[in-house]
């Protein structure tokens, strides 16, 4: 496995830094537990079950960066791309809580692409009009590539122009090892790293509308037959509130996820990114592995972190 990086003094947030104020045992204790849980820890009994392949990154909001594995070589990310697509759209067309947003008209190309057997799509029809909020549901829940490309054309006139916007936003978020070449992630030339996708995931979970959409397990969209189901089956676990799947043969299984560490919705939010699981196999095999590793990480984190966050132990020198 590639070299593991865990630079806690640099990676911990200001809310959970190693140099905690005197007497702040809660913060210092949490930071100590993060060091024990990280992939570079010498305390193997405490370490989380990090994936042995691909890349991964894990953060607990308000506490710090637990760790990163697998190096920082850009790899294909498949449909995780759509999180950036949604981010760009919501910057250009803001939607408030409870709002539907502007209407989008389905064009002929999106209808034609709905019949593709080579990629995930949604059965939309030319001339159909749906608000942006509903279009985001079609793009993010079943991971419809034809809707992602439709929204790119609607926003910027062409997918190429939209991709330029995606790469500009990536730069503003500090995603220095990310290159977008399409709005859907279908192209294996769209590449990134676990740490870069973590920056995007944290940004996305701060947007109320995007956060609400990715937490939706299933819905019905007017004019679209049947139930629209989320491909993220990790949402079946209590406390999981997002985020996005991505899979292909070159990319393997990828999962960006967010979940509350404790039973309450006010408990700390853990965000994880797992890339490149079982790359070179089938998309289904890769995604199964991404789900399995992510669930194991989350279960272990929930078991080992809460005591420190509740002030259950004092920092060790």
What does this molecule look like?
There is one protein chain. By secondary structure, the protein is of the alpha+beta class. The protein has one domain: Beta-lactamase. The chain has 11 helices and 11 strands. It has a 5-stranded antiparallel sheet. Belongs to the peptidase S11 family. Keywords: Cell shape, Cell wall biogenesis/degradation, Hydrolase, Peptidoglycan synthesis, Signal. This is Peptidase M15.
Protein topology:
Elements: H1 8-11, H2 25-37, E1 55-60, E2 64-69, E3 75-76, H3 81-92, E4 103-105, H4 108-113, E5 129-131, H5 132-140, H6 145-156, H7 159-172, E6 191-192, H8 194-204, H9 208-214, E7 218-219, E8 228-229, E9 240-248, E10 252-260, E11 269-277, H10 283-304, H11 306-309
Antiparallel strand pairs: 1-2, 1-11, 3-6, 4-5, 7-8, 9-10, 10-11
Helix pairs in contact: 3-6, 5-6, 5-9, 6-7
Summarize the structure.
The protein is of the alpha+beta class.
């Amino acid at each position: 496995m590639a070299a593991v990086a865990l630079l806690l003094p640099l990676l911990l947030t200001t809310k959970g830094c190693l140099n905690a104020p005197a007497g702040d045992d809660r913060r210092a204790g949490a930071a100590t537990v993060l060091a024990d849980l990280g992939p570079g820890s010498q305390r193997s009994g405490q370490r989380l079950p990090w994936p042995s392949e691909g890349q991964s990154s894990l953060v607990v909001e308000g506490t710090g960066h637990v760790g990163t594995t697998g190096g920082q070589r850009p790899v294909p990310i498949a449909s995780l791309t759509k999180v950036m697509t949604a981010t760009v759209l919501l910057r250009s067309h803001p939607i408030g809580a409870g709002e539907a947003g502007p209407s989008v008209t389905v064009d002929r190309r999106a209808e034609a692409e709905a019949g593709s057997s080579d990629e995930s799509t949604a059965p939309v029809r030319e001339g159909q009009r749906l608000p942006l909020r509903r279009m985001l549901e079609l793009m993010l829940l079943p991971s419809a590539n034809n809707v992602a490309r439709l929204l790119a054309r609607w926003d910027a006139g062409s997918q190429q122009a939209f991709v330029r916007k995606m790469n500009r936003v990536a730069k503003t978020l500090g995603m220095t090892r990310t290159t977008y070449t399409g709005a859907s992630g279908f192209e294996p030339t769209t590449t990134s790293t676990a740490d870069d996708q973590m920056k995007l995931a944290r940004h996305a979970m701060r947007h109320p509308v995007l956060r609400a959409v990715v937490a939706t397990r299933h819905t019905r969209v007017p004019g679209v037959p049947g139930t629209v189901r989320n491909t993220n089956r990790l949402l079946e676990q209590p406390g999981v509130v997002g985020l996005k799947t991505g899979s292909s043969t070159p990319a393997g299984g990828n999962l960006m996820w967010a979940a509350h560490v404790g039973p309450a919705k006010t408990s700390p939010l853990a965000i994880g990114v797992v890339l490149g699981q079982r790359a070179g196999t089938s998309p289904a095999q890769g995604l199964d592995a991404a789900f399995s590793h992510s669930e194991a990480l989350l279960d272990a984190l929930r078991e080992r972190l809460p005591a420190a966050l509740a002030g259950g132990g004092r920092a060790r020198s």
